Amino acid sequence: GTSGILDGTITIDFNAGPQSGTYTLIRQGDGLEFTDTFTSQVQIIVAVPAGTYSVEVQDLSNCTIPDPTLYDIEEVDQVLFSVPADFTACGEFNFIPSSPDSLIFTVSNSSGSIINPEADGSFTISQSGVFTVLGEDPSGVNCPRESIITASITQPIQFQLDGPIVDCQVGARYDAVLTNADPADVIFLWKDDGGVIIGRSQSFVPPRQGSYSLEVQPINGGLCPINSIDFDSIELSEDIDVELDVVPFCGDQNSTTITVV
Question: What is the three-state SS of 32-97?
Fold first, then answer.
């Protein structure tokens, strides 16, 4: 139950074959009663809390058959342990279930696959999902218990810097190339040597020669460390003055020669 204490059971067997009627179980001391009807049953299992119980069965003819024996149901606790219920981690999350007792733990994912413990008894979760932790008493005295973990595992954003890509119209351009993320899911931060953000697009054209850096962060935040790529922009050569020497051609010709001088 919610108290961490499980109910016990009292089993009623009908050795003469299937029977119908009503059973009544009464706990001694406080008179707590458990009663119900049954039809064509050879066995009845009744869940009851700890205590001492009297048992009687009434058949369809209203004939009551009391059992002269009182039955003791001992109180048995569930094992005690704690694990993180919900967490977000970068790459993977390692944990050891905490318990005042020496328990046997089994961790499984939503498909039932078992996650093997590390040598120190810890468990490592490296994928997002719902996981079940089962704690068991090796002596079998206390009842086993399950706890659910919901894990959200994020991965570091991997990216590269492509450039400089020379464009005579706009200058030297640099592109952020993502290897494990979608551009719609990240934020691009281009910074100057003073740490001031001067660009937020996937492509960046430095306004002047100097030192810059690129950071890429998840748009929804995350616990992974932020990587940065530092680079120095190039300076394009000044425009070159040129003259064109064109050789005229006659009307019956379809081409001529243009020479850059």
Answer: CEEEEEEEEECEEEEEECCEEEEEEEEECCCCEEEEEEEEEECCEEECCCECCCEEEEECCEEECC
